[in-house]
Amino acid sequence: MIKKLTVLILSVWLLCQALPAHSSYRLTELIDTPTARSVDFGSYLLMFRLYGTGSVTGRLQYGIIMQNLTLGVSINAENMVGDSTIKLRRPYLYGKIPFYSGDHIWPAISIGFDEQGYGEFRSDDTYQYSPLGFFVAMSKYGIVPGLNLNFGVNTNHGISSAADQGVSGFTGIDFMLGPEFMLLAEGRDINEDGGQINLGAKYLLRPELSFELSFIDLAANPGPSRILKIVYSGDF
Asked: What is the pTM of this model?
């Protein structure tokens, strides 16, 4: 598994070297995986993820101290919309700090922790899609105009079976289609058992407000899950 992850990261890094750098819109996360960017100091990001049978995951992130340290908290509410009993889960923590800002050769690097899982909350107190846990996220911005490349590794935090815990990889791209539309694609939980592929599209109504429709786990049977994400950012 470690050998496969090493080959993946080296391959992505070599691709970064072969392409010139350009500036473009930068995200703090793709669909379920992080990028190397943090929330700017003095700013906040509020995200609502709507999924399943009227369920909602809300997350607040804010940039504090120097070096754009991002701290956040999220909470999940099942059956928030509808007539079923609302089930609230305990708050989950999030943190990310930039380690290196990147240059024309090396990608930007951040380290962080995310204990929020997604999807169905199961009887063994785990989520259908496990939290990332500790992660290292790397991003090469603007490898061609409008295209950012993101990749990294994480610890599969929250998996109930100790035999299943370990290191996995993730990678993805975001591509701007004009000033208002963005395409997203990512692979996560990449290990010897395969991985999960997610696709999405983001509409930027305003620079601080976006709407995203994504399809989670394209290979799932009977089919992928659909989520709607609303993201708002602002300054304190």
From this structure: 0.84
pLDDT at residue number 15: 55
Pick the CATH number of 2-235 from 3.20.20.370, 2.70.70.10, 3.40.1160.10, 2.40.160.40: 2.40.160.40
Is the peptide bond preceding residue 222 cis, with omega within 30 degrees of 0? Answer: yes
Q: What is the mean pLDDT of the chain?
A: 85
Nearest to 184 by CA among 26, 48, 76, 72: 26
- Cβ 132 vs Cβ 34: under 8 Å: yes
Three-state DSSP state, 232: strand
Helix, strand, coil tally for the chain in percent (to 5): 10, 55, 35
Q: Which amino acid is at 142?
A: G
State yes or no: pLDDT of 20 exceeds 50.
no
β-pair type (209-216, 225-235): antiparallel
| Torsion sign, CA atoms 69, 148, 101, 15 | positive
pLDDT digits (tens, 9 = 90+) for 140-198: 988 888 899 999 999 976 655 554 568 899 999 999 988 899 999 999 988 877 789 99
**SS3 track for 117-166:** CEEEECCCCCEEECCCEEEEEEEEEEEECCEEEEEEEECCCCCCCHHHCC
So where are the chain's domains?
2-235
Question: What is each CA distance from 52 to 81, 112, 143, 194, in whole angstroms?
Answer: 10, 27, 35, 24
